[in-house]
Specification:
2 copies of one chain form a homodimer.
Chain A lengths: L3 H10 L7 H13 L1 H18 L1 E2 L6 E2 L13 E8 L2 H10 L4 E5 L17 H8 L6 E4 L5 H14 L5 E4 L15 H9 L5
Parallel strand pairs in A: 3-4, 3-5, 5-6
Antiparallel strand pairs in A: 1-2
Chain lengths: 197, 197
């Protein structure tokens, strides 16, 4: 159809999450049309990110420094560690600005079917980290899925003799959510955890 | 939230057509996670495309060569020129493999409101090109919108004294389309252009 370079560009773009052949073609055309204002700056930022960004060896976050800016931030509460599955969840929590502790990224969830065990999630590293005497509470902010809850129970079990408080995110009605569209499990959980007003 | 390089990467990705902040974050994370298998190859193909791809000075297509592989293809019918708005339309026609002539990309549509006149669309170049004695028919494959039809009428008007046959795409029911979901204009056009079976 077009030149080999354009075909290769479309093929690589269509591998990105959420993009298919159609959106990749659209993006490729936009990049070729706006070479100076779009393609070149994007290449430069991608190269800069590839060079600068590393994984924080303490918590697993992506940052230009290791330990990351969250781990080194002395204004954050080091006695509180929030366990998340991935960096995207960490970013989601950070956007709320509601959590002022530190994080620990497992990089996945326990999943016997996919052959993902405790060693793959570096849970020993989490255990070693929270047993430094500083950490008082571990918040398990894992997905409310089967794998997420299995992982949460496993971590809670491994931590139960340390004396550290273990908590999980509350279940309930999402803010702005309509009861009519909610699943039964969420409604029963919200009923069980009802609060005085 | 994250390092400056990550923020810049997300900002540049979210400028791509069809992407917003959420999909840009998702793509940025995937790129950072799969640096060797995704980010580096994408940077290389983008650089290769930026270097190799040029605009065909004859028809306006993107290709690694100028004149492009369609313009230089001797198996294609040079007496037939299809006028399209953009390269994406040219690609769409090429995917059907139903057209074996050559193309002419206007790069836009006449739009008095946006201040786009005949000079911006290089329509003089099209006129000069088709008046070489080789071109017998010009197919106006422009969008069935007001601007598209205005542009088609303008080009047809400029070509009317050349003796070249001018045609347009047929209007009708899309293949696989249900009448119930079609607009009235399309149904009346399909009725008017009804064919013996």
């Amino acid at each position: 159809m077009a030149g080999a370079e354009i075909e290769a560009l479309i093929r690589h773009l269509s591998k990105l999450p959420g993009l298919g052949p159609r959106s990749a073609r659209r993006i490729a055309l936009a990049l070729l049309k706006k070479r100076e204002s779009m393609l070149d700056p994007l290449v430069r930022t991608m190269q800069a990110a590839a060079e600068a960004v590393r994984i924080c060896q303490t918590c697993g976050n992506y940052d230009s420094q290791d330990p990351c800016s969250i781990c080194t931030d002395t204004r954050r509460d080091g006695s509180l560690v929030c366990v998340v599955e991935g960096v995207s969840d960490l970013w989601a929590l950070e956007r709320t600005a509601a959590f002022k502790g530190k994080y620990h990224v497992t990089g996945g969830l326990l999943s016997p079917i996919d052959g993902i065990g405790p060693d793959d999630l570096k849970i020993d590293r989490l255990l070693a980290r929270v047993q430094n005497g500083v950490v008082k509470e571990v918040v398990l902010a894992l997905s409310a899925t089967v794998d997420g809850q299995t992982t949460a129970h496993y971590i809670a079990d491994r931590l139960k003799d340390t004396g550290i408080t273990i908590s999980g995110l509350a279940h309930g009605v999402p803010v702005g959510g309509e009861l009519d569209y909610l699943d039964d499990g969420t409604i029963s959980a919200a009923l069980k955890a009802r609060r005085p007003m």
